[in-house]
């Protein structure tokens, strides 16, 4: 049995006057330790799908199982890294990274030491733990957010455009750091991104979603010579351009279809 099973998900958002079907007939599986990405035109339902898998939204139809258990019955098994770091501005870095452990009653000397060590492994040492978030750069804050997420040892990590607010150089460095860290911990992760290069460089598989309603249009297996490399080196490998062009063309054809369906006849 696969680690994560997403079965026949349909989702419609209802308001007083409208019904928007965001997702239709989504089924997929993810293996333990795998890194997959959801890529697709704006509004194709990537965030909705991520929220359903994380049990933040209940789907209109379908089920999500993590290690064969419905996600609605799980606690603390899923961690997040989002575009904004959501660090509490009035709490120190140490208080921020220990908060999840405290709330889930897992805070003890051992988990505290492990978490502070992880902060150092992320290159954040020299007394940073006593500082406030505003004293840190955007890239440093995202590293803190990753430590906070990993502190409670979630089984599955959800990454919703975690690098999109960063400058290009910081983003490339963080892609490597996140990828290496998740590999070292053997974590399973799902990334939502608009960036084809990022999806290829970080993933084992890429799910391309088509819009209105969102469906899985195609799945791309990343060539094994790229999977072996860190994201930075993968971007510079000759196999990268080939798969980039293939996905680019597919995404472009999807975007053209979307534009046409928006043009009034
Ligand atoms: N709370 C909501 N109520 C009504 N419709 C919604 C709601 N949230 C999302 N939608 C609609 O559902 C569809 C999918 O939205 P979603 O945010 O999941 O897409 P996305 O692929 O993540 O978009 P983007 O790439 O722009 O972030 C869109 O048509 C959106 O307008």
Kindly summarize this structure in a few lines.
GO terms for molecular function: ATP binding; ATP hydrolysis activity. The chain is an alpha/beta fold.
Describe the structure.
The protein is of the alpha/beta class. It has a domain at 1-77 and 187-265: P-loop containing nucleotide triphosphate hydrolases (Rossmann fold, 3-Layer(aba) Sandwich). It is built from 9 helices and 10 strands. It has helices spanning 46-53, 93-103, 109-121, 138-151, 168-184, 196-202, 224-227, 231-235, 238-262, and strands spanning 4-14, 19-30, 35-39, 61-66, 69-70, 78-82, 156-160, 188-193, 205-210, 215-221. Strands 6-7-8-3-9-10 form a 6-stranded mixed sheet, with helices on both faces. A 4-stranded antiparallel sheet has the order 2-1-4-5, covered by helices on one side. 35% of the residues are buried. The mean pLDDT is 91. Bound molecules: adenosine-5'-triphosphate (ATP).
Give the tags.
ABC transporter ATP-binding protein; 265 residues; alpha/beta; ABC_transporter-like_ATP-bd; 6-stranded mixed β-sheet; 10 strands; binds adenosine-5'-triphosphate; 4-stranded antiparallel β-sheet; ATP-binding; Rossmann fold
Give every kind of bound small molecule, once each: adenosine-5'-triphosphate
> What separation lies between the terminal Cα atoms?
48 Å
- Proper CATH architecture of the domain at 1-77 and 187-265: 3-Layer(aba) Sandwich
Q: Round the mean pLDDT to the nearest integer and report it.
A: 91
Please summarize the sheet with the most strands: 6 strands, mixed
**So what's the overall shape?**
globular
Strand order of the largest sheet: 6-7-8-3-9-10
InterPro entries: AAA+_ATPase (IPR003593), ABC_transporter-like_ATP-bd (IPR003439), ABC_transporter-like_CS (IPR017871), ABC_transporter_ATP-bind (IPR050166), P-loop_NTPase (IPR027417)
GO molecular function, one term: ATP binding
Domain ABC transporter: 4-236
Protein name: ABC transporter ATP-binding protein
